[in-house]
Design goal:
This is Quinol oxidase. This protein has about 140 residues and is mainly beta. Helix content is about 10%, strand content about 40%. The model has no long low-confidence stretch (mean pLDDT about 90). The structure holds copper (II) ion (CU).
Amino acid sequence: MFPMIRFALIVLLALSANGDAIEPPQSLPESMKATVDEQGVQHISIIAGSYFFRPKHVIVEVNKPVKLSVAKEPGLIPHSFVIQAPEAGISINISLDTEPKVVTFTPFRTGRFTFYCDNQFLFFESHREKGMTGVLEVSTE
Ligand SMILES: [Cu+2]
């Protein structure tokens, strides 16, 4: 086999299968409620990895500002964080880096809103299908 083709195949396999798939860190809980600072701002941090979010269930209170920090674990595979719930005042679509990205919003409607990674490598399963999805729960005060 030509070296270039062999190289391409190895890269393809590494990226498509579970090349840098990592177990979700056990130290991070599956579910977490936002912490509130003196100013009344709710803080939540989420870590993205291949192929998970931790926590994957975050709970915030309605009508209070939220500062959401999302970072990805080191690795070749790019990840994003998407949540589209304009009916609740939440609309986020960012590509992730190992440096945390911070978004601020104030949810004005209660409910359970799905977030996910919208990346997909070629014709393989999307990251969302591989498990990169979670729920932002907006609860009453
Ligand atoms: Cu992803």
